[in-house]
Amino acid sequence: MLEKILKKSGWTDIILSIIFVLFGVMLIANPEAIVSFIAIILGLIFILLGIFKLSEYFSTDKTNRYLLAIGIVAIIAGIVIMNCADIISSIFRIVIAICIIYSGIMNLQTIIVWKDYQSRLWLISLILSIMIIIAGIYILVNSGAILQTIGIIIVSYGVVNIIENFIFIKKVDNYLK
Known about the structure:
The structure is a single chain. The chain has helices spanning 2-29, 31-59, 65-83, 85-116, 122-141, 145-176. The protein is an all-alpha fold and 177 residues long. The protein is flat. The model has no long low-confidence stretch (mean pLDDT 81).
């Protein structure tokens, strides 16, 4: 009985990991389409939440005006999210890129101090700081860079999880024998 439950749990995790891998591959291959799809789903959720809050407002004694405001704002937010997915994605990408570039520049300032103190780490830190700045610039000019990176991380996670679950299922067989 325990063996069946453990094996079923392992196979369920494998199936979920395969779904993660497929999602990650889609995110790598076509990040803009995935963002649009997610924006539509998220927009619909906000619109449905807004409709729910409006119906709650109109079905009660109308003393809670926050329900009316929340409903209207949620519907407007849903429409904006659905229609402006590219703008939202671009703003997010630009903010992340600027933060990465800023971090690289701040590291350069630290390197100057390390060099003055005759530290041997300054050359390695200089190379890493330049790489961070280049990565930030790459994200700034490449619209799909962040999403593709997330896709790679998701695929990596899925593959590692699949391997771990196959090992787990094998160990269950060995352990229970």
